Amino acid sequence: MGLILPYLATLMVFFFIYNIFTWGLNIQFGYAGVLDFTFITFVACGAYFAGVFALGPGSKQTGFEWILGLNWPFPIALLAGAAAAGILGLIIGLIAINRLRSDYMAIVTLAAGTVIYGLVSNFTPLFDGFDGLAGLTQPFSQILPLNSNQFTYLWVLVSGVVMVVCWFIAQRILNSPLGRTMRATRDDQDAADTFGKDTVRVRLIAMSMGAVLAGVGGALLMGFIGAFSPAGWTSGETFVVFAAMIVGGTGNNWGGVVGSFVVAVLINEATRYIPPIQADPTLIPTVRNMLIGASLIVVLWVRPQGIIPEARRRLYQLPLRPGKPPAAEVESA
Amino acid sequence: MGLILQSVGFGLVTASVLAVASVGLTLQFGVTNYINFAYGTFLMLAAYLTWTLSVKAHLNFILAAAVACVLMGVIAVGVARTIFKHFVDRQAPLFYLLIVTFGLSLIVSNVIEAIWGPGFETYNLSVGTPLTLGPFSLTPTQLLIMGLAVVLMLGIHFMLTRTVLGKAMRAMSDNRDLAQVSGINTDRITMWTWFITGCLAGLAGIALTVTTVSFGPTSADSFLFVIFAAVILGGIGHPYGAMLGALVLGIITEVSAVVVSSAYKDDIAFVALIVVLLLRPQGLITSRGRA
């Protein structure tokens, strides 16, 4: 009994953080149709920058080496991580969304992610290379000295509050004129262009906003675990968020909640606590990854709209007389 | 200076591997019109099949490689028939197909890891003493890979220009509907294309792992986007462009390994990719010889 509550709290933290990830990817892909195959890079960007803002200075002598090291309070570090991820999203977006077709976009994001991964892992002065950042003291420990279980409960609260804020941001964008333009761009870019919408700019905003949410989630992860290294953001992690978004349903944020619960919590995180099989310790992780890959394909096959489909909007139909399609009226007129 | 010339020699070897891989990817793109993000895992799967056949089953290496290539072709056809065809037939959005191939790459790479484990393997091949040819110094294996690539490229050229299959593939990549009404069995041509792309992926994977000596399940991950860079540089869907792109990128990456540092090889390829995308997104070759 003593273990179950902290365990559930840990899962809850991951659930909240993955919700933020899934909404972020949803803004990019579900709203605006930007195919970002390196979502996890933005998560990492947020985590690293939050880390170096919150951590003390690193030095070569101790073997822990990183830039900045400002010792700033965690909330500011979180915002810094979010901003850094947003800027990175804008930079990659500027290259990828250059009036190119969607497969080019996917290639550029994937390639950029691979290069950044290699750079961060090999270039130690930046974020301590492959060893990564470590040794972050519990955020808020000066005001609230807590043991590790109590800290987990605190983090349920913190990530919950941040999640609610992100929910309002994501919903706000979805229901705004900007969100409408994003969906129009996704559904038919030429048509949106024809109506005078700046589709490149709209998709850049989506890319950047999605990256901001990724960065917020990454910063929360950094604060929760206290360490972050390249082993934590291999390209496989992007699949988890993609699978969560596709399974739950794209273009709406409730789908993201369902998807991140099914994929990220039930398949991805909860199975990490299954003891490894002695004879073959890699079997459970590989089967888990196969399941995640298969869930992407199966859902796109049988139910591409996901568990919770995007609501059909009727704004563009506006029939003058209900029950009659507008096309028939044009013909009769 | 001698070192740079020497690295040009290595560049030609890399270019040979890259050319085989790029032509395989671009041929498939030309005919089917979507990118296969699982292509990198195809390379590794063939390499591991060759390893099992030659090291575990003690088959002759050349025979093992040939069997693995054909097997990879069959697997590619199998995947295309069972999974991709479903989405193509329903005219699913391009997004779906890209995500499906992306998901497939996760599945295949984990199948590889589940069967062969995450460790590194090597073929039991003797490296051979390097031969010195002018400024270049290359092993017999490397020369063999280069020779094989040249023969293959000529073979692809003759297939595309002289055979019914090649002409049908070019017609399909030009205009699929027009090809279909002209009586070309597009289904059959598509499946042959997948077989060829699978074989070429297999061959490239084996050549890649022979040149890198030891290999693990993720060895082709960064190579995949050097392939993408070569394909885009040459103009996506153009086999001759892909050959040219492979030659340029192969030499650029190897020379930069000497001039800058071998740790930043991938970054140089990425910079080349970005420069091409910004300046000439349609690629070097646009109209002539599209497949």
**Fraction of helical residues of chain A:** 55-70%
Low-confidence stretches of chain A: 326-333
Q: Which band does the percent of strand residues of chain B land in?
A: under 5%
Unreliable stretches of chain B, pLDDT < 50, 5 or more residues?
A: none
**Overall pLDDT metric of chain A:** 84
What would you say this structure looks like, in words?
- Chain A has 333 residues and is an all-alpha fold.
- Chain A contains 13 helices and no strands.
- Chain A has helices at residues 4-31, 39-54, 74-96, 102-122, 124-127, 148-175, 177-187, 189-194, 199-225, 236-248, 253-269, 283-302, 326-332.
- In chain A, helix 2 runs antiparallel to helix 3 (74-96), helix 2 (39-54) crosses helix 9 and helix 6 crosses helix 7.
- The radius of gyration of chain A is 21 Å and the shape is globular.
- Chain A starts with a helix and ends with a helix.
- Chain B has 291 residues and is mostly helical.
- Helices cover 75% and strands 3% of the residues of chain B.
- Chain B has 11 helices and 4 strands.
- In chain B, strand 2 and strand 3 form a beta hairpin.
- Chain B is globular.
- Chain B starts with a helix and ends in a 12-residue tail after the last helix.
- The relative contact order of chain B is 0.20.
- The mean pLDDT of chain B is 86.
- The A-B interface holds A 29, 33, 35, 37, 95, 98, 100-104, 106-108, 110-112, 114-115, 118-119, 122, 235-236, 239, 242-243, 246, 282-283, 286-287, 289-290, 292-294, 296-297, 300-301, 304 and B 34-35, 37, 83, 86-87, 92, 94-96, 98-100, 102-107, 109-111, 113-114, 117-118, 221-222, 225, 228-229, 232, 263, 266-267, 270, 273-274, 277-278, 281.
